[in-house]
Amino acid sequence: MMEPYKLTLSEAADLIRAKRLSPVELIRSCLDRIEKVEPKVLAWARITPEETLAEAERLERLLQAGTSLGPLHGIPIGVKDIFYTAGLATEAGTKILKGFVPSFDATVVKRLREAGAILLGKTTTTEFAYFDPAATRNPWNLDHTPGGSSSGSAAAVSAEMCLGAFGSQTAGSIIRPAAYCGVVGLKPTYGRVSRYGILPFAWTLDHPGPFAKTVRDIAILLEGIAGPDPLDASTTFAPRLTLLASLDAPPSGLIVGVPDRYFPERSDPSVASAFKEVLKVLEGLGMRIREVTLPESFEAGVEAGRLIMHVEGAAAHLDRFKARGAEYSPKLKALIEAGMLVPGVSYLRAQQVRAVAIQAMRGLFQEIDLLATPATPTPAPEGLRSTGDPVFNLPFTTFGLPALTVPMGFSPAGLPVGLQLIGRPFEEALVFRAGQVYESATEWHTRRPPL
Amino acid sequence: MEDVKRWVSGLLGILVEEKSVGESPETWGTLAKSLKAVYTVPLDPLAEPAITLRLETPEEDSRRGGDDGTL
Fold first, then answer.
1. Domain for residue A181, yes or no?
2. What's the predicted TM-score (pTM) here?
3. Listed residue (A223, A178, A224, A187) closest to A206, CA to CA
4. Does A188 reside within a domain?
5. Same domain, A212 and A307
6. Which of A38, A41, A163, A190 is 20 to 30 A from A67 via CA?
7. Is A385 among the domain residues?
């Protein structure tokens, strides 16, 4: 058998269920991998090897006694360092929260543990999940950014230090780093996954979501943690999620819309050429490609999202900022200072415009089943001072629509580029079907960085 | 602008320097563009903002608790 750390999450889960791989063996393999590559990648804020091994031993004993906790039994997972973890520090990439140890788990973490996952550690984040970068490097080229803000989650999965990870997206913080690092990432529909126990950045824009090596792995992770949570009112009306049952259903006949503006003019040639090939593959798989005109309110809706992020970001940080403003990094400091000056009427205007744009997107989705775009305008930029541009992701974060990224090729410099598939609210299953069939027809997702 | 900034900062109890260390021209440029953009869309007088208010039942309310991380 190959080194266990190289397995996909679903392969490892199957082997554990069949008692052909032990959780302890898998954890040891991941810890060895971390020891080898973490000094180069710097994806972890902290790991807890002793506790992790003890938990793996406990889960192994349970299996031997005939008890499986669920589909994630024995699977090592990383969680972005803004998710509360009981008894384990949560520092959000800032010295302001140094030493802060929550007394309870975020709902996502609680559900991961209940499904049998092992929390390997906390992955790095940009400061408070905004744009001031972490030290993390892109596993495909250490001189390039891994993206952000969920920098560590994307890099840890890409470098095969864990089999899955969780992050969050307020603008482009899941899809962008996943695409830059050549892994699969999902920003679910707003309300699909509980935000309870995750440090907020912008309440009406924050979305938690998973990273993994394949679409199937993402489906397993999402099924493990999604669903209504009485502690997060946004999740109350989410319909039941069934992904795995329909994952392999043929998506032939699906109408895939390709926007006629906004994305093409911003795409780098290497991204545009990979995306063109994607469309041929999707067509070959029986999907119908249709160029679509985005609603007139699309761009204003995106700007509304940006304005909302400034105001809600300022509001979320105001008390801390009053006490310790001097310790904030420059980009977040600038956002807070600007956001607090926006008139209340303009914030509400932005929320009204956002509602208009969401309604217009609903109209567009009456003509198509999915929307396809590149995940980012360029491959991961060189340097570590910026985490790249979320301009292709902010629209769908603002509109709350589910977005999945799957690797779609490589730039001439050897950096991965990603496809972004967007669906109707709460129709993750359809997005996954298209992503899964594309992934099965290509081999981009099987490539690993040369670490 | 500086007067407005001083007034709002004073109301919120935040000390903001006239030329803040963190202030970058792109932040203000970005925000100005966003502010203008949201006034280009004509609105129905009945248009509601994309925010919902859902009141908790007493049972849900009692399930909340613990550390909120506030310093």
1. yes
2. 0.95
3. A187
4. yes
5. no
6. A163
7. no
The domain boundary, picked from A250, A282, A312, lies at: A250
Of A364, A390, A421, the residue that ends a domain is: A364
- Picking from B12, B64, B69, the nearest residue to A340 by CB comes out as B12
A16 and A133 share one domain: yes
Token pair belonging to A89: 């520090």
Q: Which domain holds residue A62?
A: 7-250
Please tell me whether residue A29 adopts helix, strand or coil conformation.
helix
CA angle A263, A207, B66 (to 5 degrees): 165
**What is residue A135's DSSP assignment?**
S
The DSSP bridge partners found for residue A372 are: A421
Considering the domain architecture, whether residues A308 and A215 belong to the same structural domain is answered as no
Helix or strand (DSSP H, E) at A168: strand A164-169
Dihedral angle of Cα A300, A305, A306, A310, to the nearest 10 degrees: 140
Measured between beta carbons, which residues in chain B are less than 8 angstroms from residue A329? 22
Considering the domain architecture, whether residues A90 and A198 belong to the same structural domain is answered as yes
* In-domain check, residue A377: no
Rounded Cα gap, residues A143 and A94, in angstroms:
23
Phi, psi of A117 (to 5 degrees): -70, 155
Residues A351 and A208 in one domain: no
CATH code: domain of residue A176: 3.90.1300.10
Per-residue pLDDT of chain A (451 residues; tens, 9 = 90+): 789 999 999 999 999 999 999 999 999 999 999 999 999 999 999 999 999 999 999 999 999 999 999 999 999 999 999 999 999 999 999 999 999 999 999 999 999 999 999 999 999 999 999 999 999 999 999 999 999 999 999 999 999 999 999 999 999 999 999 999 999 999 999 999 999 999 999 999 999 999 999 999 999 999 999 999 999 989 988 888 888 888 998 888 999 999 999 999 999 999 999 999 999 999 999 999 999 999 999 999 999 999 999 999 999 999 999 999 999 998 999 999 899 999 999 999 999 999 999 999 999 999 999 999 999 999 999 999 999 999 999 999 999 999 999 999 999 999 999 999 999 999 999 999 999 999 999 999 999 999 9
Do residues A241 and A302 both lie within one domain? no
B25–chain A Cβ distance below 8 A for any pair: no
Counted domains in chain A: 2
B60 vs A230: CB contact, 8 Å cut-off? yes
Shared domain for A186 and A245, answered yes or no, is yes
Asked if the Cβ–Cβ distance from B37 to A303 is below 8 Å, we say yes
Tell me whether residues B39 and A310 touch, CB distance under 8 A.
no
User: For chains A and B, what is the number of CB pairs under 8 angstroms?
Assistant: 133
Interaxial angle between packed helices A23-41 and A9-17, expressed in degrees from 0 to 180 and rounded to the nearest 10: 160
